[in-house]
Amino acid sequence: MRSPKSDKIIEIASYILLSLYSFIILSPVIWIFLTSLKSLNEIFSWPPTILPKNPTLINYHEVIERYGFVTCILNSSYIAGITSLVVVTSGVLCAYGLTFFRYKGSSQVAYAILFSRLAPPIALLVPLFLIFREMGLVNTRESLIVYTFFMSFPFIMWCLIGFFRKFPKDLIDAAMVDGCSRIDVLLKVVLPLSKGPLAALAAIAFLWSWNEFMGALVLIRSRGLMPITLGFFTFTQEEYTNWGDLCAAGIMTLIPTIIVFMILQRHMVKGIFSGALRG
Fold first, then answer.
1. Which of 89, 79, 91, 32 is nearest to 210 (CA)?
2. Which domains does the chain have, with CATH numbers?
3. What angle do CA 230, 232, 234 make, to 5 degrees?
4. Residues whose CB falls within 8 Å of the CB of residue 221, separated by 6 or more in sequence, listed in order
5. Cα–Cα distance list, 253 to 11, 124, 154 (Å)
6. Mean pLDDT, contiguous 10-residue spans, the chain (279 residues)
7. What's the Cα-to-Cα distance from 121 to each of 124, 126, 162, 186, 206, rounded to whole Å?
């Protein structure tokens, strides 16, 4: 049996290792943030400086006023927010029906949706582009929402199917006996107990759409509709890259994702602990 002193040493060592690991993981973000506060001359100075000698916000001012990068952030927030809402809602409905109310051919439907995602994204992007062009949806945010929906929906749906298969069937049977309809069971029984997985999948869908590049490159043409993945191109030229503005834009793009995770983290952590206790 270990003594209290040895337990204390192990606890302190654990905190030191975790702090070191966190610093290593966060060091690129810290370096980007410090670079965003440097002037252009200091960024290219030799030897390089770690801390900015004269911190300045000129890079953030140029990103906002000169490049209009806030518009890119708003476009990405709109596209990612709508996509995550639609894909999680559709995934819940499909997974709920295919799991709890099985019918002849339901497994084939689920596998057909999964197999549709096995094709490379570019293989789906070309026919979707042709369809969008005929419908007049090219160069619209809605076209990118539809594309990211097709990319993320099979994954989201199958994750929910795996969760619903472990859902207590007795709770659903009891609700049906009490007179609940199938929609009532979903709204009053299944969803309240599925906040953790739904929050995690909503975060995944948001980041999936937030980081989408290939679809945006093909479908979006106007500068005012560009998401952040295309907006970063405005900081790179053929023979020159504005590293100060690029780092400032990178820090700005972290803000919406941090807000999303702060909103969803409570449900995500609660879902993790409830799953561990149930297991």
1. 79
2. 66-276 (1.10.3720.10)
3. 90
4. 138, 139
5. 36, 28, 27
6. 71 89 90 88 83 87 86 92 93 88 81 83 86 90 91 90 84 81 84 84 89 89 87 77 86 88 72 45
7. 5, 9, 24, 32, 18
